[in-house]
Amino acid sequence: MTSEMTFEQSLNRLEEIVRDLERQDMPLEQALRLFEEGIGHLRSAGSALQAVDAQVQQLVEAADGSFSVEDFGE
């Protein structure tokens, strides 16, 4: 996934790759290139999800119902 692509764009590209790979008439070399591209998008999207998950985990609800963001080190 290139740095210019958003998470959503990367997911859309992954869906396109899957559709293309499901075709029965694709040459093996082209299928391998698409597979490699897809793995790159999948890894980047996974990293983006992990970063968002970490941010969500930092959000802590206080007893009074307010929310605050805390550092991992605390």
Structural summary, described in words:
The structure is a single chain. The protein is mainly alpha-helical and 74 residues long. The model has no long low-confidence stretch (mean pLDDT 84). The longest helix has 31 residues. It is built from 2 helices and 2 strands. It has a two-stranded antiparallel sheet. α1 packs antiparallel against α2.
Question: Which oligomeric form is depicted?
Answer: single chain
**How many strands, what sense, and barrel or not for the largest sheet?**
2 strands, antiparallel
Approximate shape: rod-shaped
Instruction: Compute the separation of the termini in Å.
Output: 33 Å
User: How helical, in percent, are the residues?
Assistant: 55-70%
Topology, number of strands: 2
Radius of gyration: 19 Å
Largest sheet, spatial ordering of strands? 1-2
The overall average pLDDT, rounded, is 84
Content of β-strand:
5-15%
